[in-house]
Design goal:
Number of helices: 5
Structural class: alpha+beta
Distance between the termini: 41 Å
Shape: globular
């Protein structure tokens, strides 16, 4: 049984037909296979191709209008085994998609995001207990809940980041 990684991704494309095509396949719970087909599922092939062992799980989506471009965009939420599907995002960028993706894996304690810039796909990843975490990610995934019954707390350090601190005993 894997640790589940929670993913939210916003995808845009200049071709409205690409948005409609993706919308059509995700309504049938297919995402990765559409972007990077592997045919019959095979464990190693899935990991090598998608970067995770299974197709997106618990896939949900919403379509939004983009007032700047006039094109719609999709926001997808899903779970993956262990980690985000980085290879899927890279292929989408290669195919002309703009990708903004966020992930949180509470079992291993990491959180981060992918985005598209002039050089292609970039990643920012943070170990929750070892480095400051952007407020945007803390709030998106409600990471405060991870420390509800803990001897540690998540503290806003005043510059847009949170850090894990040990709670001092009031003895």
């Amino acid at each position: 049984m894997p640790n589940w990684c929670v993913n939210t991704v916003i995808v845009r494309h200049s071709d409205p037909a690409k948005i409609e095509e993706l919308k059509s396949v995700i309504t049938n719970d297919v995402f990765f296979e559409h972007v990077l087909p592997i045919g019959d599922w095979e464990y190693n092939k899935a990991i090598d191709t998608w970067g995770t062992k299974w197709e997106a799980s618990d896939l949900s989506w919403m379509k939004f209008p983009d007032g700047r471009t006039g094109n719609d965009y999709l926001e997808l939420s899903f779970e993956t085994a262990w980690c985000p599907p980085e290879n899927v995002y890279a292929k989408m960028v290669e195919d002309g998609w703009k990708v903004e993706a966020y992930f949180y894996e509470p079992g291993e304690g990491f959180v981060g995001k992918y985005g598209t810039d002039l050089d292609g796909l970039y990643e920012e990843s943070y170990q929750i207990t070892e480095e400051p975490i952007p407020a945007e990610l803390v709030e998106m995934f409600n990471i405060h809940d991870m420390f509800d019954d803990s001897e540690y707390e998540l503290v806003d350090n005043g510059d847009g980041f949170y850090e894990v601190k040990e709670i001092e005993n009031a003895d």
